[in-house]
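Today's session is about reading a structure prediction critically. Students often jump straight to the picture, but the first step is always the sequence itself: look for stretches that repeat, for charged clusters, for runs of hydrophobic residues. Only then move on to the predicted structure, which in these notes is written as discrete structure tokens rather than atom positions. Here is the chain we will use throughout the hour.
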Amino acid sequence: MIGALNLSLEAYGWRVELHGWEDRGPTGGRPQADINADVERCDLFLGILWRRWGTPTGDSRSGFAEEWELAQGRFARTGHPDLWLYFKDVGTDAVEDEQLAEVRAFRQRVEESEVAFYKTFADLAEFENRVRQKILGAIFERTELTRADIGVLAYATRHHPGLRRHLSVQASAANAPSIAFYRENFDIKRVVLPRVFSIEEVTALIAEIGIETEVFAFGSVGPMSEGRCFLSSYFTGLSPTSEGACAPASHVIFLEKDGRVLSTLGQVTLNSFARGEPAAYPTPCKGRYVTHGRASYLFEEPVALNAISILPELKAAGVTALKIEGRQRSRAYVTQIVGTFRQALDALARGDSSFTAIGQLEAEAEGGRETFGAYHKGWR
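Below is the predicted structure for this chain, in token form.
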């Protein structure tokens, strides 16, 4: 069941790993202590009981009892792990011995205290079905749906009310009334703001809307309507909205010609670079076009937004989360960018003002150049 479940969950970035006492071999120490180590770090404690309570461990009445006490104590301290219990129907032919009495007494305590989620089951098929549905439901509760489409948000609100909903930047919700519409109709928990606000404007908007706010921290800067580049659609025949990417890699080619590097998208050459000149990824808005006999960056120069040095200002503004562009990027790129931001955030949390990231991400920035974008509107 777990293997089949993981095949479905892989697309959502989740994986279930099953650990039981059967997986623990002899280690030379106390056997139960090895099992307890799994209980200490698990996300979910799932106990299955039928007619037997178990054998004493030396420290507790049974292995299960010791594991349960450990899991329950950890939950009381930290809120983790989730506690699920499944009781198999005893049947009419059960021998009423001491083992079964322990199980019955434990079940009664659970039912009276409501300390854990519990269910009964008759056979293996019913058990698998109940557990599968419970796991999927729990993952839905921990997974956010980030969308701009009103139809999708309405469907999720009606049919999956427990699913956390975030408003995508593609909704272009750039003022309090528009954000309030999504919050009131679809119970949006977080909004991703467009890249058009100054720090002062972000601060004022967060104070007015009263929900979690996510802002862009690193990545490409472009003039398109959020996520809808019509030039990319024209050059490639693919919609950035449905394909999930502007200037899809399948249509990008770099060519060497006459000592220069040409970057093309579809059948269109967007740029020509001299040797040693940073060759930016060929998106239509960052192309050099010839107008009036002169080649220039007609729409936008290749430059990357990098807000790492203004993280204290974003924190003071009330920002909840940072958005780092990772689409169509390599693992090395993601590792470098996310790792550096993680260090900066940890330093900020410690109050360590000595940490600096100046220049660390310049090599990863588009065109080798960085900007604060609209956060610091120096042109005003």
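Discussion point for the tutorial: The first strand starts at residue 44 and ends at 49.
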